[in-house]
Amino acid sequence: MARLLLKSGIVVTQDAALGVLPSGDVLVEDGRIAAIAPSLAAEDAETMDCAGHFVMPGLINAHMHTWQTALRSVAADWTLLEYFRHVHAGLATVFTPEDIHIATLAGALNQLDHGVTTLVDWCHNNPTPEHTDAGIAGLKESGIRAAFFHGSPKPDPKPGEPHFSEVPHPRREIERLLNGPLADRNALVTLGMAVLGPHYSTLEVSAHDFALAREMGMVASMHQGGGEAKTPGGWETLMAEGLVGPHINIVHGNNLTDAQLKAFVELGVSFSITPENEMAQGHGHPITGRLRALGSAPSIGVDLESAISGDMFTVARMALASQRALDNAAERTKSGGIPATSTVPAAEAFDWITMRGAAMLGKGDRIGSLAPGKQADIAVMSLGPLAMWPVHDPMATVIMQGSGARVRDVLVAGRFAKRDGKLLRSDIADIRTRLAASGERMLDQLKVPSVSRQVAAQ
Questions:
Q1: In terms of pTM, does the model score above 0.90?
Q2: What CATH architecture is 59-359?
């Protein structure tokens, strides 16, 4: 693999020792970062001018149901209950493997286009192995680094069928994937488990799934919240049985008690929140501040492109603003006035979409920051003529003025996925057509009008 020198950028490393270089160089060799310094000489390397650009670690989208990409904006006005009814009990049941493939491919490419180099694809619409394999194929074809979190569908049961909450995660399918398409645990696309957890399953199923994930050495991620728990007191039982630890990832968690959060943090559990969609659909306030009070912090995800945009900068700002609003309101209630200073530094929000995502995946030694020896997962974002200039505080500028639309170049393991503002693919028009056709066919089940074809034809 050729050597590449990223020259004269504002290098935001997220590395404690290196910090921010107001003007710096990053040398890439064999898919890894070889050196970072104010100035590097590498005469045999291809040089790319990054003056007037941020050079930063690729973002990590810690939770997204990428299979819903063809349904963009359909759920924009739905509450969580409407989403359950229309998507899981409705639209999800008519997905073919090709629908899963095109949605996952297009969704992953859009993440790359917006500076995301690692995607946690939480796939819980895989009624057959063919659906699962189609999603994995879409991720691999995109070129993104991804954790495919294998889940299970949630349709209304037919007569004689058990409710999904009573069905253990399929060991045979996990073993098939580990012995087949996801056998290489050091590959770009790796495997995790998207389980039901005690909020959405029986205690027996939760205990089975937690133990299976630990046995297989992978993350078990689960939604927590949205109505009454299927197993009240389930978490306490699972903790008492020693089944809760660093391999457990809780998504949302809005309704957890302070005592539960404290116990989870002490056990090394990770948290992934989706602040924009949580506030929009009725989950409750994101738990950002509650985690910070315990010395922890969340990773962040988009959640649903059927409801919101896929821009991680927007989601990070939502997390930051929502927690500042809660803190400001609490201070007004306490003292009747405005806080003396902001409670959450903007720089923390960048950590949530980089290092915290890497830690959740157990890959903090490989991704999430720029440092010699780490994977060359890099995003280069333009300041533009006016949009992000002048830069007084690089970290604050990245979060408060950053946008996926400003990302010029993206590298995953040292290979360009996007360069000079364009994804390196010649089939984008075909992907758009296939994605629109997939969405229109499924939306016809609900008689929802679509204008994708008319727009594409213009």
A1: yes
A2: Alpha-Beta Barrel (3.20)
